[in-house]
Design a protein that fits this description.
Keywords: Signal. It catalyses: Hydrolysis of alpha-(2->3)-, alpha-(2->6)-, alpha-(2->8)- glycosidic linkages of terminal sialic acid residues in oligosaccharides, glycoproteins, glycolipids, colominic acid and synthetic substrates. Its EC number is 3.2.1.18. InterPro entries: Sialidase_fam. By secondary structure, the protein is mostly beta strands. It has strands spanning 28-30, 36-39, 65-73, 76-88, 94-102, 109-112, 127-135, 141-148, 155-163, 171-180, 183-192, 200-208, 218-219, 221-226, 237-240, 248-257, 264-273, 280-290, 301-305, 312-313, 316-322, 329-332, 339-345, 355-361, 372-373, 381-388, 394-400, 413-421, 430-433, 438-439, 449-450, 456-459, 463-471, 480-488. The strands form eight sheets. A five-stranded antiparallel β-sheet has the order 1-2-34-33-32, with no helix packed on it. A five-stranded mixed β-sheet has the order 13-16-17-18-19, with no helix packed on it. Strands 26, 27, 28, 29 and 30 form a five-stranded antiparallel β-sheet that branches. A hairpin with a 5-residue loop joins β1 and β2. The two termini are 37 Å apart.
Length: 491
């Protein structure tokens, strides 16, 4: 879930995450772009749930699946787990979170994540949000999310669960941290350590607006970790500080691990606001490192300026979109240790719209190169995700609007692209469309037409596997679905 300041306007913000157990195979869909995608969202396990209405103005979008993430078992790339929001609400989160799993890479079955009351055996929260999954070297799948209340309290909780059967069932439901307003927890992610069996890291930002009002915002990064395969998690603690600069928050914490050295890298956006919290005065991406499995952390190093601008329909800027601005997508080359970060920025459009940009570091994150343009020139692009395969090929996925015609204000033709850079070389860049062309304006509206604050991309041995959201036209009871596909990164 993303918070947009002033913080006093989000005192009731909440997100949704749940779990349910079903086993409905999803069918493969052949897309006109030439790629074979598999639909992983099938049916609605929360269709009968009436929990979570905040007010008469709250709108739930039944049958919608948005904001997917995924993980691949490092021992077997056919064993895949995806997670996504189910039944998005207009004013925050969803009825719950759902997982879809497969053992053959093609036929997906549904289970429910126990992160909200809509899920059987779920946590005591009205809604859930921010799904994330990561698989450890022993095959344990770690799921992370956020439970949120709107009516009975103002709680926001960081939740975790594990699966030892590839996503079929979930155990060890744990509340790693919980607060009530004026504290607000946001945007958790989880990373399984690829070389330390049983170890995983959950990171997020914790907003403090006490007392409520201007000139009192603090939003440091917090961490909780497990060393026993998710059976227990450590108490939450601050590991990225923001107190030295008033009215500063972090957002989008994501950890990647260098498998050669065991070094952890946490990426995030640091944002500073004016005294009245009405405008952003400074924003830039940073990284901190740990060489002792998350016990201690370095000071921050600057990665790149956050130059993103509001996400809107370029033919009608009154139509707000909601995608991946302010959220970094990092990756590390497993052979060389080169670090990469993809993000939305407006450096290449003169501040007119966001493109997909890439920066890299070859010295362990101490210094970073200048931004490189990945998406096409003069085409708005959104929600980048990045992965690096075992051969060092960098892959990026993103939505773009190249099919939008001037003057078209009734539809927003959108497609999902895959760009590959062998050994990270932009001169060798290739690109292909991997989705249908669909109308973004059919998506649920939640602070903007909402496909999710992020989509997922991971290396899967022979290439990369993507997970993404597409809309359905003329289907108000099923506005969106989630799809996945595996793609070779060399031709």
């Amino acid at each position: 879930m993303r918070v947009f300041l002033p913080l006093t306007a989000v005192t009731t913000a909440a997100l949704l995450l749940v779990t349910v157990t079903g086993a409905t195979p999803a069918a493969a869909d052949r897309n006109p772009g030439g790629a074979s995608l598999i639909k992983v969202s099938d049916g609605d396990p929360y269709a009968d749930c009436t929990i979570g209405a905040r007010s008469p103005d709250s709108v739930v979008y039944p049958g919608t699946e948005v904001e997917p993430y995924l993980s691949v078992d490092p021992r077997d790339p056919k064993r895949v787990v995806t997670a996504y929001q189910q039944d998005r609400w207009s004013d925050g989160a969803a009825r719950g979170l759902v997982a879809s799993w497969t053992t053959d890479g093609h036929t997906f079955h549904r289970s429910t994540l126990p992160f909200s009351l809509c899920a059987p055996g779920g946590a005591d929260y009205e809604r859930a949000t921010d799904p994330w999954v990561s698989t450890g070297p022993d095959g344990t799948v770690y799921a992370s999310g956020e439970g949120v209340d709107f009516t009975k309290s103002t709680r926001t909780a960081l939740l975790a669960a594990t699966s030892r059967d590839g996503g079929r069932t979930w155990q060890n439901l744990t509340t790693t941290h919980v607060d009530e307003l004026p504290f607000f927890n946001d945007k958790p992610s989880v990373t399984a350590d690829p070389i330390r069996e049983g170890t995983a890291y959950q990171v997020w930002n914790r907003l403090d607006n006490d007392p409520p009002g201007p000139s009192s915002l603090d939003g440091p990064g917090y961490i909780s970790l497990t060393r026993d395969g998710g059976r227990t998690w450590s108490g939450a603690r601050r590991f990225v500080d923001t107190a030295s600069v008033p009215n500063t928050q972090t957002i989008g914490h994501v950890i990647v691990v260098d498998k050669r050295t065991g070094t952890l890298y946490d990426f995030y956006d640091r944002i500073t606001y004016s005294d009245d919290l009405s405008t952003v005065t400074e924003a830039h991406y940073e990284v901190v490192t740990s060489t002792d499995a998350g016990e201690t952390w370095s000071g921050p190093a600057t990665v790149a300026r956050d130059t993103s601008v509001p996400e809107v329909d370029p033919n009608d800027p009154t139509k707000l979109l909601r995608a991946g601005s302010t959220l970094p997508s990092p990756a590390v080359d497993p052979k060389t240790g080169t670090l990469y970060m993809a993000y939305e920025g407006a450096d290449f459009s003169g501040g007119r719209f966001d493109s997909v940009q890439l920066v890299r570091s070859t010295d362990g994150g101490r210094t970073w190169g200048t931004p490189e343009l990945i998406s096409p020139q003069d085409v708005p692009a959104f929600s980048p995700a990045i992965a690096v395969d075992e051969r060092g090929t960098v892959a990026l996925t993103y939505y773009d609007l190249r099919f939008l015609q001037p003057g078209d204000t009734t539809t927003l033709p959108t497609a999902y692209q895959l760009a590959t850079l062998p050994h990270g070389n932009p001169e060798l860049r290739t690109e292909r469309r991997i989705s249908r062309v669909f109308d973004w304006l059919q998506a649920p509206f939640a602070g903007g037409y909402f496909l999710g604050d992020y989509q997922g991309l991971v290396a899967d041995g022979k290439g990369v596997r993507a997970v993404l959201t597409e809309t359905n036209s003329g289907a108000p009871q099923n506005r969106t679905d989630v799809y996945t596909g595996s793609f070779r990164t060399t031709r």
